Amino acid sequence: MAEVVEVRAETASARTIRLRVPGLSGHVAGQHVDVRLTAADGYSAVRSYSVASALPGDELEITVEELPDGEVSPYLVRQLSTGDQIEVRGPIGGWFVWHPGDSSPVQLIAGGSGVVPLMAMIRAHEASGNRSEFRLLYSLRDPESAFYRGELDSLSRTSRRFAVTWVYTRRAPQGWPTPAGRLDAATLASAVLAPESTPAVFVCGATGFVEAVADWLVQAGHSPDRIKAERYGGMGDTS
């Protein structure tokens, strides 16, 4: 069982939950955990959530977005409190991960809540002192949908190794230099690291978003062998 040691809001419908997991000795950026909730009548539901943190020791963070028809996320976002205990398995995963010893430049591409495992990579990169270039392209519906906005903006201003590009698909902030619109191949190509630098590319989002982005990357000259993708939910769109 894991103990909830902190909860904090990210958006109106999402929160970050810090957990203390007995026996945990750190985790790798990009991994996920399985969370099981069991009702009084014995019915249980399990959902997977990406780890958002780069914490050492026995703590980790997940960021959960509430789904209107969800069985697990509404409880985690609206009811779970500090001091509660929940059943957790993991961290799990060894493919969609970034290791601090990798000196390659890295291009991260997120659609909506797909930014969560990529944020773990950004935090691990900053904590490690790795000098490789890190870039994030973050596609989201509107300014209020952004996870980790303050931290991302701060890193973009202060770090020589990190930059973020925001793409708003439904509504942009007032005075934004480009109009809102879905991410397309031309916008993607102009915002990401050039294929000549052979970056490691991590893409995470809804299935439709991930498939479109992966295709555009290959068309732009990126090697499929350098692209790792993680999908969630249904087909979605390119937001």
TrEMBL record:
GO MF, one example: 2 iron, 2 sulfur cluster binding
Record key words, sorted: 2Fe-2S, Iron, Iron-sulfur, Metal-binding
A Pfam family this chain is assigned to: FAD_binding_6
Domain of life: Bacteria
Protein name: Oxidoreductase
Ranges for domain FAD-binding FR-type: 1-98
PANTHER family assigned to the protein according to its UniProt record, in alphabetical order: NADH OXIDOREDUCTASE HCR, PROTEIN RFBI
SUPFAM superfamilies, per database record: Ferredoxin reductase-like, C-terminal NADP-linked domain, Riboflavin synthase domain-like
CDD domains recorded: FNR_iron_sulfur_binding_3 (cd06217)
Keyword Ribonucleoprotein (UniProt): no
Species of origin: Cryobacterium mannosilyticum
PROSITE patterns: FAD_FR
Necessary cofactors: FAD
Family annotation (InterPro entries): Cbr1-like_FAD-bd_dom, FAD-bd_FR_type, FNR_nucleotide-bd, MRET, OxRdtase_FAD/NAD-bd, Riboflavin_synthase-like_b-brl
